[in-house]
Amino acid sequence: MNAHTGFPLPDLTTSLPRAPFLFSPKAVEEATAVLDGAPAGVFQQLLGDQESETTLLVARRVLEAFLGSIAATADPAAPQGTDADAVAAYVQEARAALVPSLTALREAGPETHRLVLRQRAPLALLGGCWLDTVSQAATQPSVVVNRLFGQYFLLRGSGTPQRGLLARRRRTLDDLGVHLPGIEAADFLHQAGARPLTALHAAFFLALSRLPASFLPEVVGVHYAMCALGADEVLLGTETLVPEEAARTVLAEYFALTEQSPTGAEDRRRTRTAIELVLRLEREQAALLTELADWQRGLSLDARVAQIVARHAPFAGKQHRGVRMGGRRLSEWLGDEDLDLAEFVAVFREARQTRTGADGACRFLQSIKFGGPMFGIFDEEEAATFTAWTESIAAGEPADLDFRPNTAGDERAAEWTGALRSAAPADVVAAEPERGLDDRELFHRIVNVEQYPHILPVARDRAEAGLADAELLFTHGSGGKLTNAEYFDYTPEALMERVERIYWDKLVNPYRPLTEIPDRDEVVFGQSTFALGSLIDGSWAHRIGNLGRDHRQSDHMLFAIYADEMGRGDLAKNHITLIHQVLASMDIHLPHIRQQEFLDQGDLPDGLYGFSIHQVCLSLFPDTLYNEILGYNLGIEMFGLGEMRLHEIQKLRRHNFDVSYEEAHLSIDNFSAGHARQSADIIVSYLDDVRRASGEEAVQREWRRIWRGYASFAYFVEHQLVKQVTDRQAAAPISAAHAARPDDADLVI
After folding, report:
1. Which of 667, 632, 675 is nearest to 646 (CA)?
2. What is the DSSP letter of 669?
3. Global pTM value
4. Could you tell me where the DSSP H helices lie in 358-501?
């Protein structure tokens, strides 16, 4: 990154400064426990818990294990310069070696193809997750971040998720007979039959998605390599959304940027390391899938039956206690944690249930058909296996009980597991979170939360305190100049009536053009009071689209708003770019908000940090504070309309200042179809889902939290109203005490 006091555009950042990662001792202990467990647990921690420092530490150690391994064994044949075409040729050579084995797996027959696709699903359904939060307050408006975000927006369906990569891949899997739950489901890996190596490979990509700002060069390398290799497209027989040529363009531009950066040589090395790692992981995956297919083809019918029994035995319970085989109840067989599958199948072969009766029917096959006691337990493929097996028994074919265990990828998985457990990044520091930080210090830490994960509990407390304070306006909010946070019971009609009244009565109808324009210094000062909030524009929603938590229509709608705020990858439309242009037109040249130098900036007032801190703190908890984010989003998107914005444009124009930021919001936030209207629609969509799932009482409970979020925005905007109310409340006890002690004139004798 270029060192400077001011922050010039365009932002040519190629990496953020390397710095220690601060974690609490508790997180260190918890992360060690996760990494000492099974690979599936590492995957689930990284995917399922997106709000804790423990997850970030697991991610840091996973990245250390994988990237450190490659750094120690770099390929001397890999290109070393800044020629993206040379890198592309190197990757294409690796792809050419992979494609024949992947094509063979796709053409190996439906059963083998389904097995392979199910195994690959934990990787295929990550779908570019490494780009989930590459766009954030600490990285915007970097040129390369916007290029990546533009391609991420494309992968997400350009605002229509049904057209996105994940939706396409899931439809293709369904069409090919591979039906799996959502990747966030607790039993996803079990349903996919994921081998430990597959879970570990997926954990690497998830880990990168958790720390993309700190590992920006690696994100660039991983994105290019995954797009260029296209392993999933080969296995699925589909077209890519981001062709190799488009990904190479980003890589080439990034390499060009590194030539202007003091850390350029190191950034390029890190990018190449990431590319080499992806090549290694995809070779390992191809080998695993081939080994898995060979294992399946070598299974006897007895072994295939054993695999089916193993899949279903944990769910058998005590339903079969009346059935006996080999002198034991069937429930005892299936409830045995150390079930000997070979012994079970041998006994099952001899049981009366599998024998063909005089009528030519098999009791077991009858039981799994419609009307039988086991109907619906086994899918069509499993039922076909049982049919073939019982027919082979009836034909007198001998048993083949020498089961070959499935060990596909286990040797390599053991090596990666060892690397994970021994990974000890030198930049990880154990430290308790600081309490009592001033607002500047706290803002610096939450913007750079990847470096300061231990601040998350403090951020949570700060967010909750802001939300609690805002409930003051539930009973006094109607007096707001630009908002009305007075509480009301929710119905879709009531919400729309309220936002329309705010729009007309508080934002539009009061507007009159200014007859006197303040002088230049006053206009600059006024803009400086808004600037800090503008410099983190959109940040409240930057985690909404993350893999594993974007399953609701309201998630997709809110992500689309965030994408608009970031210009959908177009730097000229990016709102962070626009506000920097406005400030530059006023001769205000600030360091980037992520930089240490920003702590000492003197252009923006200290008293307004609380507003931005509250916004960033909310954004760090997209699951547990989701409702509040929806309400806050409504408040801030409506704030872009009407009198205030029009007056600012008039003042800026008078002094020849840039008006692009104000004009962009006045347009894009419009109440007809823009962000303001969309924000209300998002709330209705979410609460419609709640009503269908949990009923009206739950709707009102969830609604109250949403309105807290709106009120928390109003609390920071309506300074005069809040001061009036708090002053009255502070004076109330004195008045009450005075009323309780009447003076002599009040006495009645």
Report:
1. 667
2. T
3. 0.93
4. 363-367, 380-394, 410-422, 439-447, 456-470, 473-476, 492-501
